[in-house]
Amino acid sequence: MFDLNDKRDKRRRVILGKAQIDARHGVLLAAMDFEWTCRRAILALSKKPTVVLYEKYIEDYSAFKGLEKAWSSEVVSAVNGAPPLSALLGDKVSWQCVKDAMQCRNAVVHGTENRVTDKECRWAVCILEDACDIVVQFAEEHNGKIFEPINRRRSKKAIEEETKGGKRLKDWHNRVEAQIAKYDERHWIKTSVIC
Predict the structure, then answer these.
(1) Cβ within 8 Å of residue 106, ≥6 positions away
(2) How much helix, strand and coil, in percent to the nearest 5, is found in the chain?
(3) Could you give the 3-state DSSP secondary structure of residue 11?
(4) Looking at residue 91, what is its pLDDT?
(5) Which stretches of the chain drop beneath a pLDDT of 70?
(6) What letter does residue 115 receive in the DSSP assignment?
(7) Distance of alpha carbon 41 from alpha carbon 104, whole angstroms
(8) 88 within 8 A of 135, measured Cβ to Cβ
(9) Are 39 and 60 in contact (CB under 8 A)?
């Protein structure tokens, strides 16, 4: 949907535009944008090598629930005076509002969207996009460059010690590659029917 160099204003503009056309689609995009923004801020502000953090994103800091844990472990410890993610958002966009907005996303994803109105979806989009703005502003104030490549290198030995050789990431890639080989990815390209 977006490229790394698509700055905050473009992301917000596109997501709000999509939400005006289809509020449920907007919620999905805003939820993706919020998680992506938080994870990029964590990568940008942490002192650990990016490969270590990517490894932790697989299980230790997975999904929405892992964002608070990752922020506390990686950002609060690395940035002097950094508040927990829930405190960073403040009063306008409380952590409870973000959790409620993500529940709206869950309703759409899990097939109970008929219980969620367009008005509620548009509210969720605004909450998540406002939260993204706050996270980006905080990262930028602390020299975190979210919209640029992030690469902190360490010796291979140090990385292997921290990631147990990158086993989780390698295991995931191997599982997916095995499934791709069985599925024959080229099939959908040659036909007019996509999956």
Answers:
(1) none
(2) 70, 0, 30
(3) helix
(4) 76
(5) 1, 113, 154-166, 183-195
(6) G
(7) 24
(8) yes
(9) no
